[in-house]
Write a structure and sequence with these properties.
Blueprint (H helix, E strand, L loop, with lengths): L1 H5 L1 H18 L2 H9 L4 H54 L2 E2 L2 E5 L4
Antiparallel strand pairs: 1-2
Helix pairs in contact: 3-4
Keywords: Membrane, Transmembrane, Transmembrane helix, Transport
GO molecular function, one term: transmembrane transporter activity
Subcellular location: Cell membrane
Length: 109
């Protein structure tokens, strides 16, 4: 939103950068899921797509509720908080100690 306040060209360039990086990364999660869940590949990718598109549908509605209370700052802050919590959760799950050996890092393979 900051780019829109300055110029339309800035907004278009920033959206192009976001779109390019999103295009590079959108194929990674389904590929990882297909390799991890060989027998349940269709279910895993189906659940992934359901959650992904549920977020795409819910985010604008949640954003429209938050915007009147704090504008763009609240929207970006809420998004940053959610991303931070997601990263923290993933880190805790990835490096969770194995039962019986608290010093060991769990092996996920």
């Amino acid at each position: 939103m900051l780019a829109a306040e300055y110029s339309l060209l800035g907004l278009l360039v920033s959206l192009a950068i976001v779109g390019f990086t999103a295009g590079l990364t959108m194929s990674v999660p389904p590929t990882l899921l297909a390799g991890e869940f060989v027998q349940e590949r269709a279910t895993a990718i189906g659940v992934y797509n359901f959650v992904r598109y549920l977020g795409m549908a819910a985010a604008p509605m949640i954003g429209s509720l938050l915007y009147p209370w704090g504008g763009s700052l609240l929207l970006f802050g809420a998004a940053a908080l959610m991303m931070g919590l997601g990263i923290l959760y993933a880190k805790l799950q990835l490096y969770a100690p194995v039962a019986g050996n608290p010093a060991a890092v769990s092996e996920r393979s």
